[in-house]
Design a protein that fits this description.
2 domains
Length: 449
C-alpha cells in the first residue's frame, strides 16, 4: 500500500526496522553528549560573565575551525580505513596520522595567535594574554586529537569509546569549572583552561579504549612511518577536500561571529547556536540514517528518501513553530541576559532547519549514489554562498544580521538542491561508481551543526 512514508512501505518491514534502529542509536549517542554539554553551558552562563563565556566560546569555535582545516583528512581516513589495516600496524597508523594533523593545527594555532590583533575583539583579547594564548594553542591541538580519536573509534566499531571521550570531556569541564568557582576565578582565561585541560585529560584517559595493539619495535621506525605517509597521504587529502566542501560552514559561521561582534555578543550567539543545533539534531540524524542504511539498490534509496524526507520536514516544522514561540523561555536556561539579547538570534537561526533537511538529504543521496565529486562541488559552492551571506549580514546588522544572512542564504542553497532530492523521491537514480576510494561511510560528519 502506498502512503506518505513511501511506496509499498508495508512490504518492507525489515528495511523500516533497520532504518529506525540506526536512527534510534544515533539519537541516543548524540543526545547523551548534547545533554552534558548543555549542562556545562547552563552552569557557566549563570556563574560567569557574558564576556568570559564569549571568550571561551570564541576559543573553542576557532579551535574547531583550525582542526577542520588542519586535519588533512586524517580523521576521515582512519574512519574509512583503519579496520582494514593489519592490527599490528593500526597503532603506528593512528599515532602517525594524529601527529601530522596535530602538528599542522599547532602551526595554524600559533599563526592565529600571531595574527590575533587583526582578527576581531575576542581573538585579540585571547592573543594579548600569554596564558590564554598558550591555552588556546593547547586546546586547538587537543581538539584535533579528539576528532582523530573519535573517527578511529568509529572506524574500529568502538562507538562506546567515542561516547565516553565526549562525556568525560564534558564532565571534566564541569568539574574544573567547579574548582574555578571554589577558588573565586571567574574569568575567560579560567574557562579556556577548563576547556583545554578537559580535552587533554579525556584523550589520554580514553586511549586504551581503542584497543590498539602495541606495534613491534621495527614497525615504529621513521622509515615505516614515512612509508605510511606515502601510501595513504593522497587518499587522506582527497577525503579532506571532500569533507571541507560539505561541513565547513558549521565551523566558519561561528568564526564569522567571533570576527565581527564583541565577546558578549559571541556568548549570546553561541547560546542560541547551541540550542538551535541541539533541537535540529533529530532531522539531521534522520538523513544520516538514510545514508547509513543505503545500499547499491536505487529502489531502496528512493524508498528511504520517501520515509525520511517527510519525517524530517515534519520534525523541523514542529521545532520551528515551538522555537518561534518559546525562544525567550528556552534562553532563560542561560540567564535573563541571554533571553534579552539572544532571542531574535535563536528565532532566526532555527529558520535554517528546513534548508538543512534538504541539504542533509542531498548529501546522503550523493554519498549513497557514489557521486561524491559532484556533490562536493555543489556543496562547496553552497558553503561559500552561506558564509558570504552571513558575513554580509553581520557586517551590516551585527549579531542578528549574521543569523538572518545565514538563514536567507541557506534557504537559497536548499531551493537549488530541491530538484535533485525530488528526482530520487520520484524516480530511483542508478548508483554510479565514480570514485570508490572516496565513498567511506562518513555517517557522523554531514553538517555537524
Amino acid at each position: 500500500m502506498t502512503n506518505w512514508f513511501g511506496a509499498g512501505q508495508s512490504k518492507h518491514p525489515v528495511e523500516v526496522r533497520r532504518l529506525f534502529t540506526t536512527f534510534g542509536f544515533l539519537v541516543a549517542r548524540q543526545g547523551a553528549t548534547a545533554i552534558i554539554g548543555l549542562g556545562f553551558w547552563v552552569v557557566t552562563t549563570h556563574l560567569f560573565s557574558p564576556e568570559a563565556v564569549g571568550l571561551s566560546a570564541a576559543a573553542a569555535s576557532t579551535a574547531m575551525l583550525l582542526a577542520a582545516f588542519g586535519a588533512l583528512g586524517v580523521p576521515l581516513f582512519l574512519l574509512a580505513e583503519i579496520e582494514s589495516i593489519d592490527p599490528l600496524q593500526r597503532r603506528v597508523v593512528f599515532t602517525t596520522g594524529n601527529a601530522i594533523a596535530a602538528f599542522v593545527v599547532l602551526i595554524l594555532a600559533v599563526g592565529t595567535v600571531a595574527l590575533s590583533p587583526f582578527l576581531g575583539t575576542s581573538l585579540r583579547i585571547i592573543g594579548a594574554d600569554p596564558a590564554m594564548a598558550m591555552l588556546f594553542v593547547v586546546g586547538s591541538v587537543a581538539t584535533m586529537a579528539g576528532l582523530t580519536f573519535d573517527d578511529a573509534a568509529l572506524g574500529l566499531h568502538r562507538g562506546a569509546a567515542q561516547l565516553w571521550r565526549g562525556a568525560i570531556s564534558s564532565l571534566l569541564k564541569l568539574a574544573f569549572v567547579a574548582v574555578l568557582i571554589l577558588v573565586s576565578v571567574r574569568t575567560g582565561a579560567g574557562l579556556i583552561f577548563a576547556w583545554a585541560l578537559a580535552l587533554v585529560a579525556a584523550f589520554f584517559f580514553c586511549m586504551p579504549m581503542l584497543g590498539l595493539q602495541p606495534a613491534p619495535r621495527e614497525r615504529g621506525t621513521f622509515g615505516q612511518r614515512s612509508e605510511l605517509v606515502r601510501r595513504y597521504g593522497i587518499l587522506s587529502l582527497q577525503h579532506h577536500v571532500l569533507q571541507l566542501s560539505i561541513s565547513a560552514v558549521s565551523f566558519i559561521i561561528p568564526l564569522v561571529a567571533t570576527l565581527l561582534i564583541s565577546p558578549s555578543q559571541v556568548a549570546y550567539f553561541s547560546a542560541a547556536y547551541l540550542l538551535a543545533s541541539v533541537m535540529l539534531i533529530v532531522p539531521y540524524l534522520l538523513a544520516i540514517s538514510l545514508f547509513a542504511e543505503r545500499s547499491g539498490d536505487p529502489g531502496l534509496l528512493s524508498r528511504h528518501v520517501r520515509r525520511t524526507l517527510p519525517l524530517g520536514i515534519a520534525f523541523v516544522g514542529a521545532i520551528v513553530l515551538a522555537v518561534e514561540i518559546a525562544a525567550p523561555m528556552a534562553l532563560r536556561l542561560f540567564g535573563p541576559a541571554y533571553a534579552a539579547n539572544g532571542t531574535a538570534a535563536l528565532r532566526l537561526l532555527i529558520l535554517t532547519g528546513p534548508a538543512y533537511v534538504i541539504k542533509d538529504h542531498y548529501v546522503s543521496i550523493r554519498r549513497a549514489q557514489h557521486r561524491m565529486s559532484h556533490g562536493a562541488v555543489i556543496m562547496g559552492i553552497g558553503t561559500g554562498v552561506e558564509v558570504v551571506g552571513s558575513a554580509l549580514g553581520g557586517a551590516i546588522w551585527g549579531l542578528n544580521g549574521i543569523c538572518l544572512g545565514w538563514a536567507v542564504s541557506a534557504t537559497c542553497v536548499a531551493l537549488f538542491l530541491v530538484p535533485a532530492v525530488l528526482e530520487v523521491w520520484r524516480h530511483p537514480v542508478p548508483t554510479l561508481v565514480e570514485d570508490p576510494e572516496l565513498t567511506p561511510e562518513l555517517s557522523h560528519s554531514g553538517s555537524n551543526r
